[in-house]
Design brief:
mainly alpha; 7 helices
């Protein structure tokens, strides 16, 4: 049965897909806004600068780092989500549910940030729950990719298998790295940053390797 057309030849099915994408954009934007609103400027006493740095450096660095990691994760997932829905041509209830699960994990990030800024809780517990939340975001996005690119579904016009598998691998890798960081933080809070350097280090080594092999292969 032919899909009814809206003005400009826009099909009803594509209209519903666009609604799903716009709704996701709105939820992610709200999550980022709420995340930033959790930043509370504390009362600063009138003391010398070195004393102020000693008082606030540890907590500030932890909170600022968590905020940057959280913003970078949401931004990266939004870019992937945006690129993904450029190719979506069909959907079902399973895809809608997976998208909602992903958005649920995203909207919980402001709660994780709020807990990070709370007083009186152990840093290792705060870091574990924070990284667990980031890991769940990536896992749910991976599960959404599984539905879209399943062999029984034809939801995406993207047929580049290498690119599809690359997106799946990178998403799953981040999910695993975040959960490893959380487990390390739960045991020793100062070790949480170790897995987070894995991705940039691997990317740098890959670029160096590509550059060197390019020089070697270049004809004289």
């Amino acid at each position: 049965m032919q899909q009814p057309k809206h003005e400009g030849g826009h099909s009803r099915k594509q209209f519903q897909i666009d609604r799903l994408a716009f709704f996701s954009d709105a939820v992610i934007a709200i999550a980022i806004t709420l995340m930033v609103l959790e930043i509370k400027i504390p009362a600063i006493p009138d003391k010398p600068l070195n004393e102020l740095l000693a008082m606030y450096s540890d907590g500030f660095m932890l909170h600022a780092g968590a905020l940057c990691v959280c913003f970078a994760t949401i931004g990266n997932l939004w870019i992937k989500h945006h690129d993904l829905y450029e190719h979506i041509v069909d959907y079902n209830k399973a895809l809608i549910k997976r998208n909602l699960y992903f958005l649920l994990a995203v909207v919980l990030l402001p709660v994780s940030i709020s807990f990070m800024f709370s007083e009186g809780s152990p840093a290792r517990i705060k870091l574990f729950l924070f990284f667990l939340n980031l890991s769940v975001c990536n896992f749910f996005y991976f599960f959404m990719l599984q539905v879209i690119h399943h062999t029984n579904n034809n939801f995406s016009s993207l047929q580049d298998t290498k690119l599809i598998n690359k997106n799946k691998r990178s998403t799953l890798l981040l999910a695993v790295l975040f959960i490893v960081a959380g487990v390390l933080a739960l045991n020793r809070s100062e070790l949480f940053y170790v897995p987070l350097f894995a991705v940039p280090v691997v990317n740098i080594l890959r670029r160096v390797y590509t550059f060197i092999t390019g020089l070697v292969a270049r004809p004289k």
